[in-house]
């Protein structure tokens, strides 16, 4: 009798665990299937977009970037730099906002005659060669070296002050003040984004300093650019060059897209020649600036 009960119990347990394994197997297969279908759909959409981009006229640049910002056409310095360059040189281009992240995992990037090129600077250098555009040819090698130093200081040093202020010190919250229609999922993902960008800043080195130290270093960069610019129209004189696109990309973010920051305050005060410079770059290359904002200011 006792044995029969034990046999019965153990066969019940066996069938339970068999059932559980079966359910787990079905669930696992279902999830894997859904994932596969999702991946196939993503690849299909990607291929469709590339087909569309390949059908544009020859030598038309497709500039991939984030959606327009509220106060600047882009809330990232690098797409703004590249689009300003395209305008400065008159190279024909079209904007594309569906796939802002390029083959190197960053924005912006371009498609040109079916080729994909990442990195704003590499794009500019390739376009300069292809379309025979050299906006700095009137400068001496020494002047070109100075322009390069300011360009690199802005993008490889001051940029990290911007990144840390926007993503670490204010935890990405100001993004909602400067960009409309952000995906809802971004609020949920925000801590992960902040962690990733903080990691990048630490890897670069700037993120290892205290906030006060980083702000002080950034102010020194701003002072250097302000002193060098002085009363000149553009970085190297009356004519804007490639380095102006890079410097403008960063300064415009600090001026218009960092509400409540020390940068905003300084650009409206001690360094107001940099504010005038941003306005000048905007007026010269972006006569349609207001229409390139989201929402457009008409
Ligand atoms: N050197 C690159 C920098 C581009 C870059 O850092 N883009 C940022 C936006 S400001 C980005 O895509 N970050 C995303 C990430 O790092 O995951 C260029 O000039 O294009």
UniProtKB/TrEMBL annotation:
Matches recorded under Gene3D superfamilies: 1.20.1050.10
Segments forming domain Metaxin glutathione S-transferase: 220-281
Domain Thioredoxin-like fold positions: 77-170
Gene Ontology cellular-component terms listed: cytoplasm
InterPro entries: FAX/IsoI-like, Glutathione-S-Trfase_C_sf, Glutathione_S-Trfase, Metaxin_GST, Mito_Protein_Transport_Metaxin, Thioredoxin-like_fold, Thioredoxin-like_sf
PANTHER family according to UniProt: FAILED AXON CONNECTIONS-RELATED, METAXIN RELATED
Protein family (similarity comment): Belongs to the FAX family.
Entry protein name: GST-N-Metaxin-like protein
């Amino acid at each position: 009798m006792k044995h029969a009960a034990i046999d019965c119990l153990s066969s019940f347990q066996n069938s339970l665990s068999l059932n559980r394994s079966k359910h787990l197997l079905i669930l696992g297969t279902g999830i894997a299937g859904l994932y596969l279908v999702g991946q196939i759909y993503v690849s299909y959409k990607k291929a469709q977009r590339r087909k569309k981009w390949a059908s544009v006229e020859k030598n038309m640049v497709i500039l991939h970037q984030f959606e327009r910002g509220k106060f600047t056409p882009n809330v990232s310095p690098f797409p703004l730099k590249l689009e300003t360059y395209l305008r400065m040189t008159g190279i024909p281009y079209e904007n594309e906002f569906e796939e802002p992240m390029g083959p190197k995992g960053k924005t912006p990037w371009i498609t040109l005659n079916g080729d994909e090129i990442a990195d704003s600077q590499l794009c500019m250098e390739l376009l300069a060669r292809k379309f025979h555009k050299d906006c700095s040819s009137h400068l001496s090698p020494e002047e070109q070296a100075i322009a390069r130093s300011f360009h690199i200081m802005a993008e490889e040093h001051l940029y990290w002050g911007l990144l840390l202020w926007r993503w670490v010190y204010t935890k990405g919250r100001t993004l909602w003040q400067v960009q409309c229609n952000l995906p809802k999922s971004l609020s949920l993902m925000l801590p992960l984004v902040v962690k990733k960008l903080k990691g990048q800043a630490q890897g670069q080195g700037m993120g290892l300093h205290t906030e006060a130290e980083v702000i002080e270093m950034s102010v020194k960069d701003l002072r250097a650019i302000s002193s060098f610019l002085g009363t000149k129209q553009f970085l190297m004189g009356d004519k804007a060059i490639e380095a102006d696109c890079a410097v403008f990309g960063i300064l415009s973010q600090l001026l218009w897209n960092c509400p409540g920051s020390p940068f905003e305050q300084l650009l409206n005060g001690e360094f107001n020649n940099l504010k005038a410079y941003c306005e000048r770059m905007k007026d010269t290359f972006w006569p349609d600036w207001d229409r390139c904002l989201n929402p457009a200011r008409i």
